[in-house]
Design brief:
By secondary structure, this protein is mainly alpha-helical. The N and C termini lie far apart (100 Å). The C terminus is likely disordered. 31% of the residues lie in helices and 2% in strands. The chain is built from 7 helices and 2 strands. The protein has a two-stranded antiparallel sheet. Helix 5 crosses helix 7. The chain has a domain of 119 residues: Cytochrome c-like domain (Cytochrome Bc1 Complex, Chain D, domain 2, Orthogonal Bundle).
């Protein structure tokens, strides 16, 4: 009799525990039930980029203007992020990356004894010299400019930081590379040259319409289409080839 009583107690305890486990979430759900709002309380109107829209073209720096005024101290500070892989002292050893003494204006594979990647060797066949523009494009996004490079550095997107860094690199054994004369075609407001890269890596095509105010950028969509002048009744029709571009 005592054994049956103990068994009933154990069975009751098991059933009570199961009830708690199953029932408590149901009761809690009924007490704290919430419904999703029909309309979001905080709507952020962020228009999506039009499909197929052209990215704004970026003019390369006018080296004849920016290098003489570059901040060398800021450039040296920017190089701190490179020191884990590169040395820059004359005769310095190669590290994970090549020694960079005298790199500005030198050949792309300038450091003897360094094992350059296949991607960099292929790039050097097309662009054999570290010109100012080559360095600028490479430092902006190494993996995009030289696909397959072993350099894992993400790049420097700020133009002034790159200018300061390149100016400081030039002061480290590359003083023989003359600063070019200022180029009006690279001044703010000048139209981007055919083939200039946009931030997404695309090139500006010949004949791309540009805006007439501020930096010249491609104009797309309806704004880039010619509009035909309308005439009022009784007035002579305007010449068919007189159109104006939307500004």
């Amino acid at each position: 009799m005592s054994g049956d009583l103990n068994g009933n107690k154990i069975l009751g305890a098991v059933l009570a525990t199961a009830f708690v486990i199953v029932g408590v979430p149901q009761v809690t759900g009924m007490i704290y039930h919430t419904e999703a709002p029909e309309k979001m309380g905080y709507f952020v109107d962020a228009p999506e980029e039009a499909a197929g829209g052209a990215a704004e073209a970026v003019l390369p720096p006018d080296w004849g203007t920016v290098l003489p005024t570059a901040d060398l101290a800021a450039g040296e500070a920017a190089f701190a992020r490179c020191q884990a892989c590169h040395t820059i002292n004359a005769g310095g050893a190669n590290g994970t990356g090549p020694n960079l003494y005298g790199v500005v204006g030198a050949s792309v594979m300038h450091s003897a004894g360094f094992a350059y990647s296949d991607a960099m060797q292929a790039h050097a066949a097309e662009a054999p010299t570290w010109t100012l523009d080559e360095l600028d494009q490479f430092l902006t996004a190494p993996g995009r400019h030289v696909p397959g490079t072993k350099m894992s550095f993400a790049g420097i997107r700020d133009t002034q930081t790159r200018v300061n860094l390149i100016a400081w690199l030039r002061s480290q054994g590359s003083g023989g590379m003359a600063i070019p004369a200022p180029d009006p075609a690279r001044q703010p407001g000048a139209a981007p040259a055919e083939g200039a890269e946009t931030p997404d890596g695309a090139a500006v095509e010949a004949g791309t319409p540009t805006s007439g105010v501020g930096p010249q950028v491609p104009v797309t969509g309806a704004a880039g289409q010619p509009t035909v002048q309308e005439t009022m009744p009784g007035q002579p029709a305007a010449d068919s080839d007189e159109t104006t571009n939307a500004r």
